[in-house]
Specification:
It is a single chain. The chain is an alpha/beta fold. It is built from 20 helices and 16 strands. The strands form five sheets. Strands 3-2-4-11-5 form a five-stranded mixed β-sheet, with helices on both faces. A five-stranded mixed β-sheet has the order 8-7-9-6-10, with helices on both faces. Strand 15 and strand 16 form a beta hairpin. It is globular, with a radius of gyration of 21 Å. The relative contact order is 0.18.
């Protein structure tokens, strides 16, 4: 199906909804979305959780730059210590919404990331910008990439090497597993994997608790700057323009606060477009995020990779064509159904699911394209695709477009049976 952009204005909202298909729209939504006096936010204040990572940028800047006030709400960013904390506070209602791992929300929906909870993905917050870091101790032993890592791993007893990710069903686990498997390393039998909160990654590598990790920025750059590790792979080298963090919440909250949900997405859409508008805006964003209230680090750890300027810590530098992006004319932020379905295929591949779910039905339940459409109309001049599916090519040469998900999940040579 074509992904040709459709520029959405408020007046063309109905036609755009039809282009995406009635299956992804709420019954009656188009009749009342813009009824006079009916679209005021139900909540004036919206508490949004975030983990101190570069890709929380659009949530923070929506508040700092006042985009939230434009839509009648006040976003209160809430700094959290771990993804488990984000999960628990989101489920309990202590947080209205959160900057959250894509796979965490899908895992909650299916009861494999905690107690089952009906969830919602309101928009994608960013593409790209994560990495797999290996220790300088491995580098001293000649390990520089997946191929050399495999030689080192198979020369030792199974489980001799430890690698960390941030949450069992999250994005970083999936990038790490995919990369290891592509190198011929089974992440469940050849090595040991553990969960570590992002801000604790560098410290744990420093004291020798692990030989590698997959996490978001600025922690990969921090490992390089501290002389502890190097970047073995970026997540965009695994899947160029992959989905990463999303704006997640409970389905119940959306049903109770549909206008607030729309206003929240609209504010973050505006912030996303502003960040991507210029390098100067990205530098300003990096400076804001470096502050004590957010990442509490040096801006230099954020700025380079936000601008696509990469140094792997081993002498290689490059301008990355698929660095972290926040808007790209709405292509980044749209909640593609195929993106959510891909994470389900990897949950199945790695035994987190013991059967094939109804992939498309799950994605349609979670990804609230209806709310996103309304927000895009409120913002104006945001492009929408003609299909909620997109086509991507991953590092193993496989093409993913949302078609035949069960066969795709079963197609990998290295996988794990359900527990």
């Amino acid at each position: 199906m074509s992904n040709k952009p459709l520029v959405l204005s408020r007046r063309r909202f109905l036609q755009a909804g039809a282009a995406l298909g009635s299956a992804v729209l709420l019954p009656g939504m188009m009749d009342s979305a813009w009824a006079a006096g009916s679209d005021a936010p139900e909540q004036n204040t919206v508490k949004v959780g975030f983990i101190p990572l570069t890709d929380c940028a659009s949530v923070v800047m929506a508040s700092v730059k006042g985009f939230d006030k434009k839509y009648g709400i006040s976003i209160v960013p809430s700094k959290e210590a771990s993804w488990a904390a984000v999960r628990d506070k989101m489920v309990s209602g202590e947080l209205d919404a959160a900057h959250v791992l894509y796979g965490l929300v899908y895992g909650l929906e299916l009861g494999i990331a905690g107690k089952q909870q009906a969830m919602a993905n309101l928009m994608t917050l960013n593409n790209n910008g994560q990495a797999i870091s290996l220790s300088m101790e491995l580098a001293k032993q000649g390990v520089t990439d997946g191929e050399s890592l495999k030689k080192k791993v198979i020369s030792q007893a199974p489980g001799s090497f430890t690698f960390a990710h941030t949450f069992p069903t999250g994005t970083h686990a999936m990038w790490l597993y995919f990369w290891l498997a592509q190198a011929g390393i089974n992440p469940f039998t050849d090595v040991r994997t553990v969960v570590v909160p992002p801000p604790q990654m560098v410290m744990n590598m420093r004291i020798g608790n692990m030989q590698g990790f997959c996490v978001g920025e600025p922690w990969n750059q921090r490992a390089i700057s501290n002389g502890i590790g190097f970047t073995a792979a970026t997540s965009q080298s695994i899947w160029p323009d992959h989905p990463e963090k999303i704006l997640g919440t409970r389905r119940e909250w959306v049903e109770q606060n549909p206008n607030t949900a729309r206003a929240l997405v609209a504010a973050i859409l505006d912030a996303s477009r502003w960040i991507d508008a210029s390098d100067d805006n990205r530098r300003e964003t990096a400076n804001v995020l470096a502050g004590r209230a957010y990442l509490n680090t040096k801006a230099e750890y954020l700025t380079g990779r936000m601008l696509g300027q990469y140094d792997n810590g081993m002498g290689k530098t490059w301008q990355d064509n698929h660095a972290m992006q926040f808007f790209r004319d709405g292509e980044v932020t749209f909640p593609w159904l195929s993106d959510g379905m891909w994470f389900l295929t990897q949950h199945r591949r790695w035994g987190l699911l013991d059967h094939d779910p109804d992939y498309l039905a799950v994605a349609k339940r979670i990804n609230r394209i209806d709310i996103y459409q309304q927000a895009a109309a409120a913002v104006g001049n945001v492009s929408l695709p003609s299909s909620p599916m997109r086509t991507s090519t991953l590092m193993d040469g496989s093409t993913w477009n949302g078609g035949h998900p069960a066969a795709y999940a079963a197609s990998f040579a290295i996988k794990r049976e359900g527990e």
